[in-house]
Structure formats: C-alpha cells, structure tokens
Write a structure and sequence with these properties.
2 domains; six-stranded antiparallel beta sheet; six-stranded mixed beta sheet
Length: 364
C-alpha cells in the first residue's frame, strides 16, 4: 500500500504540512535541522504508534501544544493518528476508531533505514529481536495472537516473582504452563519464518556485500532440546533470586556470523550499514513475494554510502515495489540516480519546517 496524500500537524518544527500526489520515490532535501527527519518521524508514528527518536510523545509534539496529528490516504484507505502530550492516542481508519495500533500496522508495513541502523549489529538483543518480530508480524498470521498470550503470562509471572516472597513452583505453575505452551509455539513459528528469510537475505547480501559471507544465527532464549517447561522448573530458584524470568522467547536473539568471527567485531562501520540494509531489504523482498508492499523511510541516504551503494539500494527498492520517503543533503546526486533508473519521483524542499514541492531537474 502506498501513500498518495499526507497531512502533518504540530510535529516538532512542522506546524502544518500537506503533501499531495506522492510518488513511488519522494525526495526531501534541506539543511540540517530543517525538518526532514521530522517528516519521516511523523510517518513512523502513523504506521507504528511511536517515534524512532523518543518514547515520550510530548518530546515530538510542538511546545505548548496538546497534540500532534498525522493523516494519510492510501488508495481507498484513509488513516489517521492523534497523539496527545498526556500519552493518550486516537486512531482512525476510514473514519472508524480502532482499538489497537496493530490494525494500522498491518495496513501500512513500514521499514526504517537510518544512520543509527548499525546499532542493530552493535547493541543488545532487543533491536535484533524486534527486527525478526516485525517480519513475523507481517508474514505469520498467528504470531501476534501467540505473542499477546505469551506476554500476558510473562507479565503475571514476573509480577509474582517481584511481589510474593519466595513464590513456590506451585504458585508459578499456571503461568509456567502458559509460558511454555505459547513460548514453544513462538519458537517454532520463528524457526519456520527464519528458514524462509535466510534465502531472501543471502540474495540481497550478495548484491550489497558480495565479498563477505554472513549467516544468521538464531538463539531461542532457552534450550529447545530441554524444552521451555523444564527450563522454567530448573531455573526456579534463580528466577526467585533474580525476581524476573530469565528464559523464554522474550530473550531470543539473532547473531551474525562471518568466517572471521562475529559481524559486530570484524566488519567495518560501512560494511555493517550494508549488512543492515541487506537484512531489511530481504524482509521487504519476503513481503513483496506475498504481495505485500512496504513503505520505506530512508534517512540521510548519501551519508556514509558511496555512489554505487546508493544506486544499488535505490534500484532494489524500486524492484520491490516499495514506496520510499528519502531525505538527503545532496539532492542532485539522488536525482541523478533516479533519472538514470527511470524511476518516478517527487522532489520537496524542506526549510524551517516548511515543505514545498519542487520541479525535478533532468540531469544529462
């Protein structure tokens, strides 16, 4: 699903922006601090309910304003989200209020590629687990249901561990059973999806980083050969001491292995960025194979990527049918790539929160 019209109000320095007749590629250029990334942030809030820059809504809602509003039209669907400084939100699709962000996320699958993307390789397990679960959400119909039940049981078990003095196995048994049932289901779903993903990943890795072979190493968060139910029983004493649940799919991780060692140790920053792009492009490709198109937010394209990598990335996104919202300081280079590849695009200048469509230039 691609966005044809976008309306933003009171997001950082963007007081009001109304963008029409959006194209497969939409290029936003301007000086640092002009509001380019804030525009991408607004789209991210619409699709996911959260910013990629802060967890606190009042940090992106304009100063002394009560709310921010983002609205989009995509084919026959109209969707909007209103985020309040109090933390509350209102979501509507085609004029009807909906209860959960998940319903909106299914309509608008979204991937973000930004200068901080290498954090996915270098930092803790959470962003890597989120990367896998984004794919799970969009390709495995039963994943969200299983995850909701698992998360509910995990929350109840952790509450008991924190509030009840020396809880016994009998105290925890109902939650152990529920965790084991849905945890094993999540694990099997992840294994199945990961096996499919590996094929797409190796294809995009070869295109972006052909000189290095990388394998995805999935770690379940528990010992599958032992089984989660047994793991929870064996770890009972330690969980009581720690006061939280150590083992389960909520502790899963992905590690990236090369012939010379772990990717976070042996790859350069530039290589890590290309690896992250291959991971995300391969997810987009997997959705594309299921007739699901992805909106891609590409922040600061020309930073840290040479001209060849820029062109490969743009060409691949076009092949996958993605709608791209792209920011850059060097719009001339980006237009050259798009013109050479015969890709339809719209150019926008961003200045102090004001966004204006600009007539594209044809470069020879």
């Amino acid at each position: 699903m691609s966005i044809s019209r976008l309306h933003i109000e009171r997001v950082r320095n963007i007081q009001t922006a109304a963008l029409h007749q959006l194209q497969p590629f939409n290029v936003f250029y301007g000086q640092n601090g002009s509001g380019k990334t804030s525009l991408l942030e607004a789209i991210h809030i619409l699709a996911t309910g959260r910013s990629f820059r802060t967890h606190i809504p009042k940090n992106y809602i304009q100063t002394q304003q009560a709310d921010a509003l983002i609205f989009a039209q995509a084919h026959q669907e109209k969707m909007g989200i209103q985020k309040f400084a109090t933390g509350e939100q209102l979501i509507k699709v085609n004029g009807d209020s909906i209860a959960t962000q998940g319903q909106l996320a299914r309509l608008l699958p979204l991937q973000l590629i930004d200068p901080q993307s290498t954090d996915l390789i270098d930092n803790g397990a959470k962003p890597r687990r989120q990367l896998l679960d984004w794919l799970m959400f969009h390709v495995e119909p039963d994943f969200y249901h299983a995850w909701q039940y698992y998360a509910r049981a995990l929350k109840q078990r952790n509450t008991l561990l924190k509030t009840k003095r020396q809880p016994t196995l009998a105290d925890l048994e109902p939650w152990n059973q529920m965790l084991a049932e849905y945890g094993e289901l999540l694990h099997s779903q992840r294994l199945s999806v990961l096996q499919q993903w590996q094929t797409f990943f190796l294809h995009d890795l070869q295109m972006l980083l052909p000189e290095i072979a990388v394998q995805i190493d999935y770690r379940a968060g528990f010992h599958p050969e032992l089984g989660l139910a047994n793991e929870l029983q064996h770890a009972h004493s330690k969980d009581v001491e720690r006061r939280y649940t150590e083992y389960g799919p909520h502790r899963a991780d992905l590690r990236f292995k090369t012939a010379l060692g772990d990717a976070d140790v042996v790859l350069s920053r530039g290589q890590k960025k290309l690896l992250v792009m291959a991971l995300k492009l391969s997810q987009i490709a997997m959705l594309h194979a299921s007739n699901k198109e992805t909106v891609v937010l590409l922040d600061d394209l020309t930073a840290e990527l040479d001209s060849t990598a820029q062109r490969r990335l743009i060409e691949r996104l076009s092949q996958l049918g993605s709608q791209v919202f792209l920011t850059t300081l060097d719009h001339v280079a980006v237009q050259q790539h798009l013109n050479d590849l015969s890709i339809s695009y719209q150019l926008f200048n961003v200045d102090k929160g004001q966004i204006h469509a600009v007539e594209p230039t044809i470069y020879n």
